[in-house]
Write a structure and sequence with these properties.
CATH class: Mainly Alpha
Number of domains: 1
Radius of gyration: 15 Å
Distance between the termini: 21 Å
CATH topology: Arc Repressor Mutant, subunit A
Shape: globular
Order of helices and strands: HHEHHEEHHHH
CATH superfamily: Winged helix-like DNA-binding domain superfamily/Winged helix DNA-binding domain
Number of strands: 3
Largest sheet: 3 strands, antiparallel
Structural class: mainly alpha
Strand order of the largest sheet: 1-3-2
Number of helices: 8
CATH architecture: Orthogonal Bundle
């Protein structure tokens, strides 16, 4: 992990240093819901991240152990990005962000359907999703 100068010992502040900007969380979001992504996949997201920002955030997330990269099985010119266990452990946080957003924003239909399943049994949903993420990240 990169040794950043900590602002404080606050867990929220320390966590935000690793994944707290909007682009890093959107990368984690894409990896949670897509399981693995290439650089080009991230560029296709509707938020339109700039290539220099994407490269910087991927590097920071990798250096802090949130993601790993590996050779793409179909192309030597591409790499696959996947979540590490540390990144997978962000799933409950991402679920809570989605539940909060559902209260205050219009969200896509497919996300509403996922949240409907979450609300039936959040603990079971998270456990199952983590198991799937671990399988795809190994």
């Amino acid at each position: 992990m990169i040794k950043n100068k900590k602002r404080s010992d606050c867990p929220v502040s320390n966590s935000l240093e690793v994944w707290g900007d909007k682009w890093s969380l959107l990368i984690v979001r894409d990896l949670i819901f897509s399981k693995q992504c290439t650089y080009g996949d991230f560029l296709k997201s509707e938020e339109k991240i700039a290539t220099n920002i994407l490269a910087s955030r991927l590097q920071t997330l990798e250096e802090n152990g949130i993601i790993t990269k590996s050779d793409h099985p179909d192309s030597k010119a591409k790499v696959l990005y996947k979540l590490t266990q540390k990144g997978i452990d962000l799933l409950p946080l991402m679920i809570e962000i989605n539940l909060w957003a559902e209260k205050y924003f219009n969200i896509p239909t497919e996300r509403k359907a996922m949240l409907k399943e979450v609300k039936k049994d959040k603990e079971k949903f998270i456990k199952t999703a983590i198991k799937e993420l671990k399988k795809s990240s190994s």
